[in-house]
Amino acid sequence: EPVMSLKDVSHVYVNDKGASLALENIHLDIAPGEFVSLVGPSGCGKTTLLSLLAGLFPPTLGSVTVGGRSVQGPSPAVGYMLQQDFLFPWRTIRDNAAIGLEIAGRRNEKTMAAVDHWLGELGLEGNGGRYPHELSGGMRQRVALARTLVTEPDVLLLDEPFSALDLHIKLQLEDLVQHTLARLGKTAVLVTHDLAEAAAMSDRVIVLGKGPGHIRREVSIAEPIR
Ligand code: ADP
Ligand code: ADP
After folding, report:
1. 176 vs 205: CA distance, rounded Å
2. Which of 57, 77, 208, 211 could join 154 via S-S bond, C-beta 3.0 to 4.6 A?
3. pTM for this entry
4. In what residue span(s) does the ABC transporter domain sit (predicted)?
């Protein structure tokens, strides 16, 4: 039973300039615990595909399921890590990491213990009382990961979370994210322009092509690191 599934999915954007076919006839099943990367040229539909999994809008045609249920809109079952960290500058790191819990009405002593646990696990021990501007870019992305993990999402969608970082920080963080998600057995989809990053982190790389967006090929990574 796949955790995420797209069946016969096509998506058309309609605006004042007309209609454009962004994705055509996509079939994709993602197994529990699998880490899948989406790569391909700009405009091939990577963000559209991720948005459909996130429930930001329904596909024009076809069905999208997460956790065996048809996606009906955004849900706390889906966690995110994006290129920008979206930390609030006036909140401490600890309070930033707790914001998803607050929105879900789940901030309490037990879940705050989980916040402290994850800040520690991700190398941010002692930083809970600091503010975002006091942290480096790599540290801030680790706060963003902690903020997602404490809400215990079923799946993670990663939209170029490393692309704004310096190379050595980027490699460190790829490693940390890959090992952390593998250890938790989390299912994840990563959108990236970086084929080396996709190959290093994934069990499977989906190469999308343009005109309109379609799956050109799928490459299984022979010996996943997990
Ligand atoms: P990628 O993430 O691979 O760069 P996108 O999913 O952003 O690709 O875009 C796929 C196609 O859909 C592109 O041709 C893009 O121009 C078009 N597109 C994306 N968003 C919109 C929108 N809101 N309105 C109209 N066309 C869009
Ligand atoms: P990372 O982003 O993975 O923490 P860096 O090389 O950016 O790696 O930072 C190494 C250490 O230097 C960090 O753990 C942090 O303590 C400190 N540091 C880096 N940048 C800043 C900054 N802008 N403000 C405060 N401390 C910083």
Report:
1. 19
2. 77
3. 0.87
4. 4-226
